[in-house]
Amino acid sequence: MGRLNGGTNAGKEHFSHDHILKLIANPTETLTCNACEQPNNTNKPFYGCNTCQYFLHENCFNAPRFLNHSSHPSHPLTLHHPPYAGGYYICNACGSDGNGFCYNCAACDFDIHLQCASCPSSILVDKHTHQLELHFGSPDEDKDSKYVCDICFVTMSNDNWLYYCAGCDFASHLYCAITSPEVGVFPKQQHPNPNPNPNPNPSQNSNSNSNLNPNAAVEMINSVNDDHDRLIAAQIRAQIAARGRRAALDLI
């Protein structure tokens, strides 16, 4: 298949696979990494087993087996790979499921994607003038307070990580803030913008989703093209339906 580099490529062992993985210095086709579940967007090296169609980015191949992470200071995290007992895991950082590698604390049932483990502690986004700081949960003293992502306008879970500017009350999902295609962080996500001049974060309370304009939401729902945006659209539909139910109850 022209993927592996010649007979001098002795390859390397990796704990996640039974066969030797050989270096693919210049991939000639799209390969998906079994660790981070992302394709090769550049010509950066891969390690692979053609027989099993098993591939790892070089960075993922070299990810440390044990990790001390500030999000979980009580215990070190161990790099795990599938199969998992439930078929997949739920990432404690971003809230989405995963089928690839994760950093895990078995004692606390704590799991995070490789991408989430490498999120920078602060970041600049083109939607905001100040640096956003990484928080491992709600930055508000009232942990029941909810935040709305000022990039995609979807209410965020209190349990998940977010980027936040306290001075401007500007909040963002991890995957909305991180737009670099480099291995180890989230790939760029394209979100339709239903409001060309959004206000700062609408509210820190549980009613913050009431600021969502239903007409703008419908326009966004009709314009979605990819899986991520379809997920956002489904969340917005649920918000609109919930508001409708509340309004009906108020009339009783």
Automatic annotation (TrEMBL):
Name of the molecule in the record: DC1 domain-containing protein
Spans annotated as Disordered: 187-214
InterPro entries found in the cross-reference section: C1-like_sf (IPR046349), DC1 (IPR004146), Znf_FYVE_PHD (IPR011011), Znf_RING/FYVE/PHD (IPR013083)
Record field: compositional bias (Low complexity): 202-214
Keywords per UniProt: Metal-binding, Repeat, Zinc, Zinc-finger
GO MF assignments: zinc ion binding
All residue ranges annotated as the DC1 domain in the record: 15-60, 71-117, 127-177
Record bears the keyword Transmembrane: no
UniProt organism field: Solanum tuberosum (Potato)
